[in-house]
Amino acid sequence: MTHSRLSVCDSTFSSGPCQRNERHRGADPHVCPRIRAFPPPFPGRVVQVCSSHSERRGRYDADGHSASYASERTIVKAYIRTFGCQMNEHDSQRIAALLEASGYAMTEAIEEASLILLNTCSVRHNPENKVFSFLGMLAPLKRERPELVIGVGGCVAQQLGGAILARNRDVDLVFGPDQYANLPEMLDLVRRGERVVMTDWGPKQPPVQDFIPDALIEAGPVVNGKAYIAIMTGCNNFCSFCIVPYVRGREISRPPESILREARALIDKGAREIWLLGQNVNSYRAEGWRFYELLEAMARLPVARLRFTSPHPKDWDNALS
After folding, report:
1. Among 97, 103, 249, 272, which is least packed by CB within 10 angstroms?
2. Residues of CATH 3.40.50.12160 domain(s) within the chain?
3. Tell me: the pLDDT tens digits for 254-297?
C-alpha cells in the first residue's frame, strides 16, 4: 500500500490551494492551512495536522500527558448531529456504526458525550450558518470539559477545511465526507494532542469502487422498517448553481454485488422499504450495469418498496419508463 503524506500546520491559516487531482477537476481552491511535510503515522489519505493543539489545551495529567491524551480513557459516549440530506443521514449512520465497532456508545444526550461530531451540509447557506451557530452553543461545554472532543465532518468541512479551526478554536477535528472510514486513526491523533484536518481527496479515484468499508456493509441500521443504501457518490455535472461536485467529488459507483449484499442484510434485519442514494443516482454505472438494471435486480429481492434520490433529468433512461 502506498502511504499518503501527513502534513503539519501551524496555528495560522491562509488562503491557498490544497493538493488537487482529477477527482475534483474544475473546483476552485478552498481555504486550507499552510503545511510542511511530516512522516505519516498511519496509511491513508493526506492529513493536515495542527501541532499547536496540545499547547492550546495547556493541561497535563500526573504522568505528563496532555488532557487530550487523558481523554483516551474517558471517551466512551459519542453524539452525532446531522444537518442536510438523506445521504448525510446515511453517512451519520455509518459513522455511528464505525464508532460503536471502535468501542464507543452512542448517546442522544449531548451533555453526556465525550465526543461530539457534526455532519454538515453546504448545499444551501442556511445549514452552514446552523453549523457555526451550533458550534457556538458548544462553547460552554468545552469550557467546562476541556477534554471534550469536537469534530466537524461532511460537506462544510470539505468546503472550508482548516479555516474551520481558525474560525472556531474549540474544534479539534475536521474531515470530509470521503474520510469517515479513517475516524479511529484521526481520533488517535486528537488524543495525542493534535488538531486534525483531513479533507484531501488523495490519489485519483477509479469510477467504480466500494467506498463503504467492507466491515460496515452489513452494519447499516433499519429504522421503522426503512433503510438507506448509498449506490454512488459524487457528480460530474458542475452545474453553475451547485456546490456538490466541489465537496463530494467526481462520480464513483459501487459494484452491484456489494449493493445487493447490503440489501439482503437489511432485509434480513426487517427492512420493508429501501432508499437508493446518490448525488446523481441515475448516472450509476458499474461493471456493465446501468441504473435500471440495478433496480431490476433490487426488485427481485423480497422488499415491499424501493425509492431513490436524487436523479438528474439528463441521465434518465427510457428503460425506466
Report:
1. 103
2. 6-198
3. 999 999 999 999 999 999 999 999 999 999 999 999 999 999 99
Residue segments in the chain with a per-residue pLDDT below the cut of 50: 1-47, 49-73, 75
**Could you please report the per-residue DSSP string of 196-229?**
EEE----SPPPSB---S-GGGTT----BTTEEEE
SS3 state of residue 208: strand
Q: What is the bridge-based pairing of β-strands 252-253 and 232-233?
A: antiparallel
Which residues lie closer than 8 Å to 214 by C-beta, 6 or more apart?
Answer: none
Distance of CA 200 to the CA centre of its chain: 12
Q: Report residue 189 as a C-alpha cell.
A: 491523533
Three-state DSSP state, 264: helix
Rg (CA), the chain: 20
For the structural domain made of 214-320, what CATH number should be given?
A: 3.30.750.210
Rounded to whole angstroms, the Cα distance separating 71 from 192 reads 9
Gap between the Cα atoms of 263 and 267, Å rounded: 6
Residues in a beta bridge with 285: 290
pTM recorded for the entire structure? 0.74
6-198, which class in CATH? alpha beta
Is the Cβ–Cβ distance between 253 and 135 less than 8 Å?
no
As annotated, the residues of the chain forming the CATH 3.30.750.210 domain(s) are 214-320
Cis peptide before 258 (omega within 30 of 0): no
